[in-house]
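B., you asked whether I could sanity-check this one before it goes into the benchmark set. Here's the sequence:
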Amino acid sequence: MTGVDLSFFTRDTAPDGAETLLPTDLARSLWGEDHLHGVAVSGALARAAERAVAELGRDDLRPARYTVDLFRAATTAACVLTTEVVREGPRLCLVDATFSQDGRPVARAGALFLKAAGSTGGEVWAPEEADPVPPPADVAPPTDEPHVPFVASDAGWSQDFREHQNAGRKQTWSTGPRIVAGEELTPFQAVASLADGASLVTNWGSRGVEHINTDITLALAREPDGVSIGLQAVDRREHDGIAVGTAAVFDRSGRLGTVITTALANAKRVVNFGEVEHAEDGTRRRTSTPGA
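And here's what the prediction gave me:
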């Protein structure tokens, strides 16, 4: 994808300054050709929240918690983002953002930005498990350019999703596209958009992804050191078709946070990655199921 300005949206600005985002083909979901995937929706909401904090001049704050509710299917229609600063104080800022289409809300987010105060001296328990690590540099060279995600499971790291249609523990390593064409992708936008992939790493099994997530909750101890983000499945619990998944978030410097998603069984419309081939230009192509 090097040298190609891939993005999820283009921007249309009215004479009065009102902004509308227009989805690109890259934002289309595998759940339906007329639907947008959560990576694009979450990225647009994160961009809106981040801009609201920047407009306050609060460069002393950094994102610490980001929660998205995906309560309607986002379509390929034009999108309007609105924000409200719920609370601004010396050490925090809470922003609500709404993603609307055709005059009605489709998704919403709450973003909490905090002011770092330095570490304390006390000792606190922490898990001893080693942090997840990205694929080796000879497999996935460091880059800020978007690329087809790398996936690891019972099979090793590769960009062929068909190799990972199994019940093994999943990891992904991604450098996502810009949220809006012509704008630099920020580390927060990158991690907030790619956090939707926690549903993928926790719900992808031997038959594909049979659950669709209804939300994303991202908690960050620090900002990413770039725009390349890894996710590793940590835990999953399911009962009566409701699944809760937890994923570790990491970059090349180590683990930086956690994502939790809630998902509903969606067996009538499964995303079968055994039939999907990803191209370097960001497009996807359905193929026949291996062995069919």
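One thing to flag: Residues 7-115+133-285 form a domain with the Porin fold (CATH 2.40.160.210). Otherwise nothing jumped out at me.
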